[in-house]
Design a protein that fits this description.
41% helix; 12 helices; alpha/beta; seven-stranded mixed beta sheet; binds S-adenosylmethionine
Length: 286
């Protein structure tokens, strides 16, 4: 499919599924937003019968969310750009806690319009001490990307994202890397991406609804994942160094008590951590 034909907005419904799942965690604002946005979601998840697979998923997305915060805390940067943020309100949360933050929260225009409506209903108003902006941005549009960056005052920039790279093919990933690389070379800072997903090993079975399988196939998600954690080589070729990887500590997750209740006997007695399917990296342009 040529670049002109690709309709990135067909990916957007996945953001609602993620929000509805995160509504079962203590991720800031997720519960309130999920209540405001209830409705049919694209993966056909069964929210009535919350089984092992349901809670495993919620655990994965909760862990992924916090992994970005963990690496963000280790940067000095006051300028943060989030790409393809969906219905995540990390930016609002950081701006509520820190008056010197300038957070630009972005996604495609339809998602941003819906998100703006729910933020208006939330009325975070007086809680927000920093500068929070919610703006449309197609990450494939380099000119729009650069004008968004120009809104920041002086100082390094931290770019963050989760749940995007697996929807981009190799060429699109390279184009985005090029845009981010030139921004970071000019401005300094780093890129924190939670999208280091590796392909499933043959024989590994996960429970997915028919609509989820169809959605993932439509968007070539499995093909778009990295072959292995040697993905560092891909980023190296694009001019990035891997600075650090977020550590995962499942014991601190708010979802854990729910998951423990539905764990199959053999898993409950196992001392092994869950298999690693994803990593969150901090990258620097060299
Ligand atoms: C799986 S959701 C992830 C949302 C959010 N980051 C989260 O983890 O909850 C994927 C998001 O990517 C956004 N997206 C897809 N293509 C995009 C593009 N070209 N530019 C910006 N955002 C895009 C979609 O609108 C959607 O919100």
């Amino acid at each position: 499919m040529s670049q002109e034909q690709k309709d990135f907005s067909s990916i957007s419904p996945s953001a609602l599924s993620l929000l509805l799942m995160k509504g079962y965690t203590n991720i800031p604002y997720a519960k309130e937003l999920a209540q405001m946005m209830q409705g049919p979601e694209v993966f056909g998840l069964n929210f009535d019968d919350k089984d092992f697979w349901f809670w495993i998923r919620v655990m994965h997305f909760e862990s992924r969310y916090w992994s970005i915060d963990q690496l963000l805390r280790s940067t000095e940067s006051k300028n943060v750009l989030e790409l393809s943020s969906g219905y995540s309100l990390r930016g609002l949360d950081l701006c509520a806690k820190n008056e010197s933050i300038h957070y630009i929260d972005t996604d495609l225009s339809e998602v941003v319009a819906t998100k703006q409506r729910i933020i208006d209903q939330l009325q975070p108003g007086d809680d927000i001490k920093g500068t929070f902006e919610l703006l449309p941005l197609d990450v494939m549009n380099e000119a729009a990307f650069n004008s968004t960056i120009d809104r920041f005052g002086p100082g390094p920039i931290t770019i963050v994202n989760e749940g995007l790279l697996m929807y981009l093919n190799m060429d699109e990933k390279k184009r985005l890397c090029k845009t981010i690389h030139s921004t970071l070379k000019q401005r300094g800072g780093c890129w924190i991406t939670a999208d280091i997903y590796v392909k499933r090993l043959p024989g590994v079975i996960i429970s997915q609804s028919k609509s989820e399988v169809a959605f993932m196939e439509q968007h070539h998600v499995e093909e778009n994942k990295f072959e292995s954690y040697e993905a560092a080589a891909f980023f190296k070729e694009q001019g990035f160094d891997l600075v650090k990887e977020a550590t995962q500590d499942y014991t601190t997750l708010s979802v854990l008590p729910h998951l423990i209740k539905v764990l199959p006997e053999e898993t409950r007695n196992s001392k092994q951590p869950p298999p690693k399917i994803q990593a969150t990296w901090m990258l620097r342009a060299v």
